[in-house]
Amino acid sequence: MLYDARSAIQLDELRRTGRAVILAIETSCDETAAAVIRDGRVILSNVVSTQIPLHARYGGVVPEVASRAHVEAVNTVIDRALDESGADLRGVDAIAVTNGPGLVGALLVGVSTAKALAFASSKPLVAIHHMEAHICAAYLAYSDLAPPFLCLTVSGGHTALTEATDGGVTRMLGQTLDDAAGEAFDKAARVLGLPYPGGPALDGLAENGNPAAIALPRAKTPGAYDFSFSGLKTAFIQLERKGALADLSKEDAAASYREAVVDMLAVKTIRAAESGGYRTVVVAGGVAANKGLRSRMAAECAARGLRLCMPPIQLCTDNAAMVGAAAFRRIMSGRAAGGLTLNAEPAGYMA
Ligand code: KG4
Ligand code: ZN
Hints:
Number of strands: 10
Largest sheet: 5 strands, mixed
Number of domains: 2
Shape: globular
Bound molecules: 5'-O-[(R)-(carboxyoxy)(hydroxy)phosphoryl]adenosine, zinc ion
Mean pLDDT: 94
Helix content: 40-55%
Strand content: 15-25%
Number of helices: 12
């Protein structure tokens, strides 16, 4: 039987039973990751091989270096994920892979590996959008979480407010007009002379600084739920050029900057939650690891009786478990798309 026809039958069968063991692969940026997920909620294994040390000396991710490192790591990472899960490929019902957005060469490593595995093992292939995966990480951490909920997704490449609706569909309410929140942190960290990726290091310094040490701007955007960080970043760079940061401790500069980013994220998220009548707010993506953002969101949500779901840090930064969780929801809502003609979509495209 042709691969596509068999896949459609297999996916229908999974949907009928409501159960699936999914092998998921993620290579969109600088983490090579594979995981095995049962029924969209249970992590049987979650292996992440980070390339951060390889890129640190260049001060950012070098795409060609990333692709090569993915090629070297991907098979070992998948083998380990299968081993640790106690399953072998025969025990897997479907293979999921991030096909965008991300670095094209990096994405292609995951996509071609997933295609080869799917074809060789006659399993359906499910393509996943990276931001959808970040949102779905919350289903792994909160076993009773169900849509609808509001989600603030903040990563190195994206900043968006979305609504997760029934059937796993997401609706965009607003997004960044320029830099992503992670980029905003990383660039300010570079100004402070911190090594790549600077977000976590800046966060660490900020813990011991005064958030009111310097006044920094908050952007106004045309869309009520859009974000913009370039004005803040430029203001910070200008202060540094004028020597104004020299009088401050790095801790105070970091704390003031973090306060500005967190303020913009929190104010709009809470506004969207209140005007949309959401009862649950999810914060996902690598920047959800930020301690300042976590405590501010916890306080704001508690004050309003909103349920706040923030996955643990290892599910917030890039991983494949979240890809498996997203694939499960796509399969069960009849929206699984993939097949052997699947290509990388570096600009991202959510079907
Ligand atoms: O989601 P992620 O792992 O990769 C992307 O999809 O981009 O996010 C990585 C981003 C980087 O910009 C990193 O500096 C930032 O998340 N990040 C943080 C923290 N931990 C990671 N930013 C601020 N504070 C943190 N604690
Ligand atoms: Zn990510």
